[in-house]
Amino acid sequence: MNISIRKHILSNFKNVSKQEMEDTIKESVNEKDELTLPGFGVFFELLWQEADKETKEEILNLLEKAINKESNS
């Protein structure tokens, strides 16, 4: 059985409103649901592909800050 996680995630969110997407992301983050991590990976991949150089730098800065904050907790 060959399942494409990317295709599955993208088909689940096709024609979903921004509000529905935000609600899903918030719920997954609040519940710390590890089953949603592959979906976040797909979202991050799409975000990274669409981002310009400046946005990528901002993403990296935010990630660095968040990772350092978490490692100090």
Which SSEs are present, and which pair or pack?
Elements: H1 5-13, H2 18-31, H3 37-50, H4 53-71
Q: Mind telling me the C-alpha Rg?
A: 14 Å
Counting DSSP E segments of at least 2 residues, the number of strands comes to: 0
Spans where pLDDT lies below 50 across 5 or more residues: none
- Please outline the major beta sheet: none
- End-to-end separation: 41 Å
The overall pLDDT, averaged over residues, is: 92
Q: What is the multimeric organization of the chains shown?
A: single chain
Provide the number of structural domains: 1
Shape: globular
- Helix proportion: over 70%
Estimate the strand proportion.
under 5%
How many helices? The count is 4
* H-E order: HHHH
Given the helix and strand composition, which structural class is it?
Answer: mainly alpha
Describe what you observe in this structure.
- There is one protein chain.
- About 0% of the residues are buried.
- The chain has 4 helices and no strands.
- The protein is mainly α and about 70 residues long.
- The mean pLDDT is about 90.
